[in-house]
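Lab notebook, design round three. We kept the backbone fixed and only want residue identities now. Task for the bench partner: fill in a sequence for the structure below.
Input structure tokens:
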């Protein structure tokens, strides 16, 4: 379209020049010349657009597609996260393909299970690489993401993790993320609790064997001091001792904690809520994005989660058109309400689309060339996504968007102010 505007400008200049010469015949000639130039410009623009359309059609006819892979746990304790990431991506791919694809090319998407295990994540990556993957939407959880990030770095493949929040997940220049990093989540949680005066005495129960959990806790503790929050107890557990939380809860109760901060995954959180109820301890509970999914834990009494708060950039009950359409499509396709991880992944696919379009990239480019083009374009794009309006990215792969929180009310997430 730039050619069209430039040519029309030239025609106007010619007309003005001829008119300045004076005389009715000159004016007539100028008008005719301008008309001819304008008609020629329109025909040229139409030919250019037609050629571009034919090129895209030829690419589609040749079977050229963009191949996007995804990795996450769709079995095991963290399966709710991976399943949501897979489904969010699938919906985005479906929408984009139905709207004409990316630069006229369709998308193929394949997702592999890593069971939240770094070694299996690397194996899943190799499977997708053999398939011909050009971009990676993943991995879903932090430890597997760190392991796979080393592989994408070696291959110079573009990677955007929807939910890998450990700092190390996006340490390499080819990796971007949609979610907040652990330090950002920890600081934001303390700030939210302090600014909304949710509690002055807080206890923390965290997983010291998890980079996700310990990373959030460390920055929460730092910011809590700035917010005038007293941490009355900070008790850890590990992956080998994640069933009995009576000691941690008792110390929180004895310390007079009005709120218990849980920067952990939903499986352990559901046990903590059950055990707190058994011992008659009823503080407020506050978590981060790892808490998302607790309402879908098998055999969990969701009434125990009533009043639970969690920091998340996505609320399924939001009334904006994008969220309403996404939730409706998700529920129709999968029979359940989407959690934040689905929204993160949906946004990740659309970020890839915008960056590829900004770069003018095509499927015939090498994986490395695609990576270089797309990572350069990531700092140019602005995405009005499910997890943030006007979302942008920095060169170090971090997103800029406003944090939000939700509360469980009547068995569903409700946006908080």
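Proposed sequence:
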């Amino acid at each position: 379209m730039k050619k069209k505007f430039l040519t029309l400008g030239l025609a106007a200049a010619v007309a003005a020049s001829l008119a300045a010469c004076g005389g009715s015949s000159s004016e007539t000639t100028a008008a005719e010349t301008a008309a001819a130039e304008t008609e020629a410009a329109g025909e040229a623009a139409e030919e250019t657009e037609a050629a571009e359309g034919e090129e895209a059609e030829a690419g589609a006819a040749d079977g050229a597609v963009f191949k996007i892979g995804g990795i996450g746990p769709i079995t095991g304790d963290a399966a709710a996260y991976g399943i949501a990431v897979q489904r969010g991506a699938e919906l985005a791919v479906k929408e984009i393909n139905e709207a004409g694809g990316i630069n006229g090319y369709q998308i193929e998407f394949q997702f592999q299970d890593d069971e939240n295990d770094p070694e299996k994540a690397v194996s899943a990556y190799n499977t997708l690489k053999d398939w011909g993957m050009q971009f990676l939407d993943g991995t879903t959880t932090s430890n597997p993401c760190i392991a796979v990030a080393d592989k994408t770095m070696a291959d110079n493949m573009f990677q955007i993790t929807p939910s890998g929040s450990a700092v190390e997940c996006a340490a390499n220049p080819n990796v971007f993320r949609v979610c907040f990093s652990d330090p950002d989540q920890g600081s934001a949680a303390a700030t939210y609790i302090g600014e909304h005066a949710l509690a002055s005495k807080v206890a923390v129960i965290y997983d010291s064997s998890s980079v996700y959990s310990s990373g959030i806790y460390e920055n929460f503790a730092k910011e809590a001091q700035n917010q005038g929050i007293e941490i009355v107890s900070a008790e850890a557990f590990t992956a080998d001792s994640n069933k009995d939380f009576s000691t941690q809860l008792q110390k929180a109760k004895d310390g007079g904690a009005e709120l218990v901060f849980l920067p952990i995954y939903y499986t352990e959180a559901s046990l903590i809520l059950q055990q707190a109820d058994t011992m008659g301890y009823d503080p407020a509970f506050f978590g981060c994005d790892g808490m998302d999914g607790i309402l879908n834990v098998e055999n969990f009494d969701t009434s125990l989660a009533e009043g639970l708060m969690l920091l998340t950039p996505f609320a399924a009950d939001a009334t904006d058109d994008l969220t309403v359409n996404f939730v409706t499509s998700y529920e129709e396709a999968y029979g359940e309400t989407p959690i934040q991880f689905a929204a993160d992944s949906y946004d990740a696919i659309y970020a890839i689309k915008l960056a590829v379009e900004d770069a003018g990239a095509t499927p015939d480019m090498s994986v490395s060339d695609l990576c270089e083009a797309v990572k350069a374009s990531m700092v140019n794009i602005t995405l009005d996504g499910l997890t943030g309006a006007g979302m942008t990215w920095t060169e170090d792969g971090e997103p800029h968007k406003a944090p939000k929180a939700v509360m469980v009310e009547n068995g569903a997430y409700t946006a908080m102010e």
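Keep this in mind before ordering anything: The two ends are 44 Å apart (CA to CA).
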